[in-house]
Amino acid sequence: MSQKNLDAPKGAPKSLSGLLPFLRPYRGRIALALLFLLLAAGATLVFPLALRELIDGALVDPKVHADKLGGHFFDLFLVAVALGLFSAIRFYLVSWLGERVTADLRNAVYAHVLEQSPEFFELTPSGEVLSRLTTDTTLVQTVVGSSLSMGLRNGVMGLGALLMLIWTNPWVMVQVIGVLLLVVIPAARFGRRVRKLSRASQDRVADSSAMAGEVLNAIPVVQSYSAEPREARRFTQATGQAFDTAIKRTRARSVLVAFIIIATSAALIWGLYQGTQAVVRGEISAGHLGQTVMYVLILAGAFAVLGEVYGDLLRAAGATERLMELLGSRSRIASPAQPLAPPLPAAGSAVHFEAIDFHYPSRPSQPALSGFQLQVEPGETVALVGPSGAGKTTVFSLLLRFYEPQSGRIMLDGTPIGQLSLQGLRERIAIVPQEPVIFSSSALENIRYGKPQASDAEVHAAARAAFADEFIERLPEGYDTFLGERGVRLSGGQRQRIAIARALLKNPPLMLLDEATSALDAQSERMVQAALDSAMQGRTTLVIAHRLATVQRADRIVVLDKARLVEQGTHEQLVSQGGLYARLAALQFNA
């Protein structure tokens, strides 16, 4: 999903139709809410009729009708009680609906984003996604849980009041309706501008959120370069742009609301004036006039609220468009309709790369792998070495199906990986990345992430195998210690050992180690390397390493350079050939 698509103008309030799949499961509650909405609107519309009876039946000659006066006020009280009860039930049902639909929408968007391939995140900042999950869904909640109900209620009341006024004062209200039509048409046209500004405002807020997320995730680097004032200025500029756009939206919306209220009030005051003249001429009673005044007030109030609600709908329409764009994005990487499920191998997986050509979507002119061919036997340990940018990590990304090669295919245990489900493929693989990821939870849960159903004893065993047990036990609460966001309470080497323990707990037939010991000191590296050597027994292992001392015992070393496989063999064989590996080895070992 490109930024161009994010900013593309869409339809107007009809964009809210994207919420229908989320509303459909709650049809019963919606129907019940509509029932009480109609009852509340009906109680409001009955009030002027009760008032007319009070004026004409009891107040015109209070001496004659004094015995009926209390009864009329009691009728008014009953109408008020009904209005209060119906409104309270409607409010609860609609608020519940807003909260439930918003939660479902957030869950659906989040689950959908988790399924996107890395290509999606190359083009869409995570801060943008978070803004949509929070700000945009909050706007949708306001509409579903409040504004839409208010709009429907006031629409029903306004229509009912209008019909009653037409019934009691037909000629006057024909004139008023003609004027109201002249109000609605320009208001709808002006509303399009408000909607565009609403969407632009939400986009600017998302920009500032994306910037803040990026900087906060890199706070040590920012502070080490004394860049706090500079980043604060950048954020101030971003929020300033969001503020300017929001003010334009608010100004346009204010003009829209003022136009609706003034124009409709003028039309209704004209109708009220005509009704007053009718009383003077004796054509209608005082109670009739009081009823007319009440209906005019209801109609004017309904139009005023509808003007506000229309502005909310326009903002929510922009938010819904952005959320539907996220839900509408489709990853190029997906499980096949009928995936194969071959049994797990007993002695490590066999991997075969056949004539792979690949370039990243964000760098279409630069090959990441070209003509790459590699056969890895079950239980074999193969090291991938070469200069930075040679394509080593790309091999892992393609094997995990984060991307699809432009040509060639990858076989895992004799099955093309495209014929396996994504879950089935990735369950066969464990990876220890160069930059280990630690979640905001305990040490126990971070290791158990590799195998959610594992017992505490299994987690402890994996930690001991990765030589993480000794430092975890020294933490304030041992395995239950909270490790902080991104593991900030641990050293780099400790984070790496947690990641290794997580992979060992998963115990897959294929292990991918991407500089798995790069953050360790010499003593820890020897300990963890011994653990990894033990863990490699009986499974296939691919190792990326820049420090050649860590891969000398590999069964085979594969050398990549400029996206191509240029050499392969054992350490001794490659040194004797005097090629790229020999030069890299000479630089490291002589140093």
Shape: elongated
Number of strands: 10
Q: Which regions contain 5 or more consecutive residues with pLDDT less than 50?
A: 1-11
Beta-strand fraction estimate: 5-15%
Largest sheet: 6 strands, mixed
Supply the number of structural domains.
2
Give, in spatial order, the strands making up the sheet with the most strands. 6-7-8-3-9-10
CATH top-level class of the largest domain = Mainly Alpha
First-to-last CA distance:
47 Å
Based on secondary structure, the structural category is alpha/beta
- Which range best describes the helical content: under 10%, 10-25%, 25-40%, 40-55%, 55-70% or over 70%? 55-70%
Q: Which CATH-level-2 architecture of the largest domain? A: Up-down Bundle
* Helix/strand order: HHHHHHHHHHEEEHEEHEHHHHEHEEEHH
Roughly how many Å is the radius of gyration?
A: 35 Å
Per CATH, what is the topology of the largest domain? ABC transporter transmembrane region fold
Mean pLDDT: 80
Count of helical regions: 19
Description:
The protein has 591 residues and is α/β, with parallel strands linked by helices. The protein has two domains: 16-328, ABC transporter type 1, transmembrane domain (ABC transporter transmembrane region fold, Up-down Bundle); 351-590, P-loop containing nucleotide triphosphate hydrolases (Rossmann fold), CATH 3.40.50. Helices cover 64% and strands 9% of the residues. The protein has 19 helices and ten strands. Strands 6-7-8-3-9-10 form a six-stranded mixed sheet, sandwiched between helices. A four-stranded antiparallel sheet has the order 2-1-4-5, with helices on one face. Strand 7, helix 17 and strand 8 form a beta-alpha-beta unit. Helix 6 packs antiparallel against helix 10, helix 7 (170-217) runs parallel beside helix 10 and helix 9 (228-280) packs antiparallel against helix 10 (286-328).
